[in-house]
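Continuing the series of single-chain predictions for the mutant panel. This is the parent chain; the variants come on the following pages.
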Amino acid sequence: MPVTATRMRPATPTTMQRTLIRPTIMPGMAMVITMITTTATIITMTSIASMTITTAIPMLMTTNKPPGKRQSVMPEAARSSEAPALGPTDISESEAASLYRLMTWLSPSFPVGAFSYSSGLEWAVEAGDITDAASLRQWLASMLVNGAGICDGIFLAHAYRAASSGDDALLADIVELASAFAPSRERHLETTAQGRAFIEIARAAWHNALLDRLITSCKAAIVYPVAVGLVSAAHAIPLAPTLHAFLHAVTSNWISAGARLVPLGQTDSQRVLAQLEPDVAATAKRALVASLDDLGSATFRADLASMRHETQYTRLFRS
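Parent structure:
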């Protein structure tokens, strides 16, 4: 087969940097010469007399067959009218709302006035019972496991269940018992003042009709743990995370008071909080399954500290 030479004008550097000529013999054609340049210009000659010039996108060119039908790249979720299923790292809208509210309500920045109370720690520091991070941790562990911590956890759990079930009579009894359970006048002031502030602020920011009805059924002052249980039940926030978050908040407030009284640095304070993590978890677990008959305190020194704080000569805290 004769080869016919064709004179072509040299390409300028701006239009062609490198030329690759590859002859291809195809059935029914004399010769196909494909010329590919860096500017994506393809020159195909099926004969001497005819020449076709095609411009294509670099790296997507083909000369053997026309491009096939482009597949859709729309995500499957966009093509479907149904909402995509939640993955293992996703949370639902209700779970996100519950987490947001718990983090807000039990944050140190939530204005219930907890920073002004020490639960008797001020007297314990002055008496020499608490002198460093280790003695503070031991004191607070006892309060969590055998004192105010476990009692408050039980009251929260039972108030939550009574509110969720709509048992107003039982709820009124729990509120009255919890108010009478404070061992001293100052501890009673501490827990009722925080309970009142918690409910008022939560109602103002997240109005809830069910919460309004629950509050009218309470005949006595609402203490702090009962207030947390009522608000969480009215907003359908699960009990277990509510209880854990409440005990964490109470423990953090105790440590904050102890850090200012001892005093302790920020690192030592966080070490104490980390060391109390098992005690918080164990107390929450017990409170979830305990009955009202399990209420009781064995932290007599802490109860005496709250009583003696009333007559302490110099005081930074209200309890």
